[in-house]
Amino acid sequence: MENIRYLELKEAGTLLEQMETLFVLMYDYMGDKGLLQPLVPGGEKMWSKSLLPTLGKFGVVWLALNGEEVIGFIQGMIKLLPNYLGGGKVGIISHVYVKPEMRQYGIGSELAKKLEEWFVTKNIDSIELQVLYHNEKARNFWENTGYEYEVYQMRKFLVGVSE
Ligand SMILES: CC(C)(COP(=O)(O)OP(=O)(O)OC[C@H]1O[C@@H](n2cnc3c(N)ncnc32)[C@H](O)[C@@H]1OP(=O)(O)O)[C@@H](O)C(=O)NCCC(=O)NCCS
Fold first, then answer.
1. Fewer CB within 10 Å of terminal CB in the chain, N or C?
2. Which atom of ligand 1 lies at the shortest distance from residue 99's CA?
3. CATH code of the region 4-144
4. Where along the chain do its domains lie?
5. Cα(23)–Cα(46) distance, rounded to whole angstroms?
6. How many of the other CB atoms lie within 10 Å of CB of 2?
7. Which residues contact 134 (CB under 8 A, 6 or more apart)?
8. CA 27 to CA 43: how far, in whole Å?
9. What is residue 116's predicted lDDT score, i.e. its pLDDT?
10. What is the pLDDT of residues 56-75, one digit of tens each?
11. Mean of the pLDDT values across residues 94-123?
12. Is there an atom of ligand 1 within 6 Å of 58 CB?
């Protein structure tokens, strides 16, 4: 996988459009792994529109490219803690995806490394992420990348509760 290159997304264009396609695939995959809150139709466009103004400020995306094809991406952002928790900055890994046929070659690890290095340049010393309980592959991946379990997230839909 020596011919894979990594670059930071800077603007709208074909790279972002390819990422939108991967974003939909990622939500399809997460749906199979127990995600209860699905992407709405066209949600990938809403996501990319909200992402663009954050780039170079409190958000970042690293892409993995094979030639001109986007084969993976990782998105991170900076969150400010409330004063009662110290008021510092925390890194958030919000999305990561590598195309199925390109997995197990170290591309996800390299994307995580690029993002962690970016967080270090922003003086961030801890990173949070959420992983689906039933996504064992991703859980293993994050455990092996040095992340520890901290919370369980639970959800209950209220449809029918008041009837
Ligand atoms: C999670 C995900 C991003 C990992 O991407 P990846 O490119 O396969 O990651 P890597 O190749 O760096 O690591 C995957 C495994 O391959 C192993 N590996 C890496 N390079 C390897 C190589 N050259 N030969 C054999 N194995 C290798 C790693 O040790 C790692 O093992 P682990 O599963 O025990 O941790 C990918 O599986 C994915 O896109 N999943 C779907 C979306 C998803 O679940 N996102 C996470 C949401 S929290």
1. C
2. 39
3. 3.40.630.30
4. 4-144
5. 11
6. 4
7. 33, 34
8. 10
9. 98
10. 999 999 999 999 999 999 99
11. 98
12. no
